[in-house]
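Catalogue entry: protein
Contents: sequence, fold tokens
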Amino acid sequence: MNAMQRNPVPSMLLHSLGWLWASPLTLTGLVLGLCALPFGARLKRTQSALVFHRFPFGPGGAMTLGNVILHTGESLEEQTPTYACVAYGGTDHVCLGDHERAHVYQAMALGLLFPFLYFACGGVTARNRFEQAADYYARTGTGWWPWPRPPA
């Protein structure tokens, strides 16, 4: 048992600081999600984020803004192909909720730097280390941090 497991206070403090650090992104996601409620979106609270399911705008899938996930589908439990699978072929799938949780953690660590670094690393593509880390985290439960580049 490590020190963080014995005393949850440091973990709770870091989590709270992460929420605060990501709050400008979270506010943006919250405003977008609340605007979508009259158009059929449904709000649900999870352990790490507020999720707007049936988000009616966008191409499909999910997008994380701080501690808010905007999801066009019904459930984050759905399986989705990894970015590498879509780009290069294959059959690897991950739980969408686990993938998006990695982005929540990334946003909590990087705050307002997150969107700038995300797009500087390639945006919504298989070569983006943020997406690679999120897929890796969804497969293994570890490794949401995008540096160094996660294993394939």
About this structure: Residues 96-110 form the longest helix (15 residues). Residues 3-140 form one domain.
